[in-house]
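Q: Convert this sequence to structure tokens.
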Amino acid sequence: MSDREANITAFLAQTGHGAWTRHVIAADASSRRYLRLTQGAKSLILMDAPPETGENTAPFVQIANFLTSAGLHPPAILAQDIAQGLLLLSDLGPQDVAHWIDQHPADAMQVYRASVDVLVHLAKITPPDLIHLSPDVAGGMVAITGTYYAQRPVPDLSAAVTQAMAALAPNPDTLALRDYHAENLIWRPDLTGLARVGLLDFQDAFVAPLGYDLASLLRDARRDVPDDICTAMIAHFRTATGAGDDFSAQLACLGAQRNLRILGVFARLAKEMGKTRYIPMIPRVWAQLQKDLAHPALADLRAVVDDVLPAPDSALLAGLKP
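A:
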């Protein structure tokens, strides 16, 4: 038994769950992994986030507590050992939004609307004290794209993103869970209202301009969201939040910034960490980026992207493999 497995066994024994059966259910882009613990019909989730890999479970606990107090539905924290990077969580359910929609395509509009209702709720509450996605921060976040995707420095890209954010999305004032997409949302159709959407993977939350998580949801790197759903969800969000006429430009800017960074993140995951499963997603990220760059307000950023970033052809993608 490895030292890590021994730590997990000791933690579960202390919580009274040492005899529960363990099933590895997920690992994400970080060093975290998740296990479902079962005993008969009962189930819980163990988050395994080794501190020696740079993981820290404290932000997850902080944000989970905030979301719960705000009337939303993250997992309940049942036991924690922050020093060991172990959390015992309630199990929100077996099916994420992506899987549910794949199995029940006629429900897509309803499920996305419920997911957007969570974002409307977040837009109406005062965010906690977290990092703010200022224009300068947003520009700095895309430096990774030059390093790993273009494989050369592209300072003009960071400067262009900063300039676009300053003009179109200058005010970070809304809590953004940051990785708000269909695979991080648990669909619970037997419940009602906001409780239908269980929230996962929010430990990197920050305060961003209105619409950041909406861009994350609708410009999904992992799946295509139909145009009619995108149009309906943007209209619903605008009506419910009172967003102004300039919101379409702000949303496009946030979507472009996000997907520019994702190009770099996915390239780094493949090249440095051997996580090549992200390579097939890069053409979709590029296509989502082009949709947002087509907005007239982003003409200057589009020109810079066209100048400094190559399209993800087969040669580029092959070069990202370790």
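Residues 97-319 form a domain with the Aminoglycoside 3'-phosphotransferase; Chain: A, domain 2 fold (CATH 3.90.1200.10).
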